[in-house]
Amino acid sequence: MELAFVIEKFALVIVIFMISLGVAAYSTLAERKIAAFLQGRVGPHRAGWGGMFQPLADGAKMFFKEEIIPTQSNQFLFIAGPSLALLTALIGSAVIPWGQSLTFGDTVVQLQVADINVGILYIFGVVSLGVYGIMIGGWASNNKFSLMGAIRAASQNISYEIAMGLSIIALLMVTQSLSLKEIAAQQSGFINWNVWAQPLGFLIFIICAFAECNRTPFDLPESENELVGGYHTEYSGMKLGGFLFAEYINMFISSAVMATLYFGGYNFPFMNDLGLPQNIITLIGVLFLFAKIFFFIFFFMWVRWTVPRFRYDQLMNLGWKVLIPLGIANIVLTGIWIIVKDTYFK
Amino acid sequence: MNLFYFIAFLSIFFSLLVIFSKNPVYSVLYLIVTFFTLTIHYILLNAQFLAIVNFIVYMGAIMVLFLFVLMLLNLNEDSEPMKSNLIKVAGVVAGMCLLVTLVGSFRALGDSDPLILKNPEIGLVKNLGKVLFDEFLLPFEISSILLLSAMVGAVLLAKKDPKKI
Q: Where would you find the membrane-spanning parts of this chain (chain A) (predicted)?
């Protein structure tokens, strides 16, 4: 383990960490602006030009608010809940390839923290851990509404993880690899994007991503008008901020995963025909990846202010009786398609 | 090797905490940490696929369900039902039987024939898949049928008897 390698990876981790937090902070502003746009309002516009400093103001407010820990709660787990939620949200970015490699003289810098050959499964594992923060926080609050929210979150995540896994299996049959770097590299150009090969799989995946992030129409764990605030009813100050921030970071990471798995990651049309140097192509690729991510974040918000929340039985029916059979059918169809392609269209 | 002993110590430490903590929710949380240390053991053995599957299935799914059930029942130290001595004795006997079985099987295994040293790459997804779907196809399929039958049984038990309604 050379020192240069450690410094390179450490710098990359810090940059990605900063970007995650920055994107999450400005997503809160974007959410309010988009909500205002869809509802014919102006939205936040006092702090800075067009509300540019609103996230800073919100952050400062969160920090200076009084931290209340209920006396009947479990003190340690009460603090562990939001910390775990933030932790699991942030570690997902480790395996995402943010771009191709940059070359400075002799050194080649990969824009990916860790290229492990079970990358997709790592993402899947991190997603499945994400529910612990909510469950522990909700239970430790010692409040019936919080507990209801936590239990809803657990059963919802378990149900939608299965459908998500099934959609990923169909994707793996096409890509033949579990490494995210290789999957991104396979989709060069425009026609090779996985979404053209797996449209149904992508539909299942994006619905499950909404459910895993607890976004409307699946935000039953925190539905305000039946559960007060759901799992974060008892939270205040920066611990509440931790939960809200974790939701926005999750949204950012799952957008990045969707862009990488189905929409070509850092690849963009005609990237090999421009005749530009490799470093420039890489930088443009990073910009394209972020454009795709921001589109998906916008899509998350667009859906939030368009589709009303589901009832709980509708949520379970959709997960178990619609998405899982569709996922299995998708696997069978993909298998048949691969065999037909290999036999007749060689 | 030092890393192995450190992780092994942590595994045993947290699994003892699972048994000795009074609050069942704490027990489950310690069990999750224990499973995490087991995941690290798999990584040390270069069994990446097994590590990540242990991570997803045990830490991410089964333990969530455990926690879910405990939170739903909301067991506390006060409301914990007193167990009769008969159950305690039966528990000790069952635990000892498991210990004897494990010790016996490990003695029979011996360390003269370590599987992991023959092919250190066996834990990678590609190699494991080839072994599972080629050499061990029949046991693999039979164990999946076993899981399916357990699932059917659980549904059958949970279903209400239509005649009694």
A: 6-29, 76-99, 119-140, 160-178, 190-211, 248-268, 280-302, 322-340
**Contact flag B68-A151 (C-beta cutoff 8 Å):** yes
Contacts of residue A15, Cβ cutoff 8 Å, sequence gap at least 6 = none
Interface contact A132, partner B, CB < 8 A:
yes
| Domain boundaries of chain B, sorted by first residue | 1-75
Interface contact flag, B60 A161, Cβ < 8 Å = yes
Residues 6+ apart with CB under 8 A from A165: A124
Residue at token pair 């239970």:
A139
Helix-, strand-, coil-residue percentages of chain B, each rounded to 5: 80, 0, 20
- Ordered per-residue pLDDT tens for chain A, 346 residues: 678 788 888 888 898 889 888 888 888 888 888 888 888 888 888 877 877 888 888 888 888 888 888 877 778 888 888 888 889 888 888 888 887 777 777 777 777 888 787 888 888 888 888 888 888 888 888 888 888 888 888 888 888 888 888 998 888 888 888 888 888 888 877 777 888 888 888 999 999 888 888 887 888 777 777 777 778 888 887 888 888 888 889 889 989 988 888 888 788 777 777 777 777 888 888 888 889 899 999 998 888 888 888 888 888 888 888 989 999 999 999 999 888 888 887 6
**In this complex, which of B25, B56, B124 lies closest to A128 when CB atoms are compared?**
B56
From CA A19, how far away is CA A21, in angstroms rounded?
5
**Cβ separation of B49 and A129 shorter than 8 Å?**
no
Paired with A107 in beta bridges are: A104
For the segment(s) B1-75, the CATH number from 1.10.1040.10, 3.40.630.30, 1.10.3720.10, 1.20.120.1200 is 1.20.120.1200
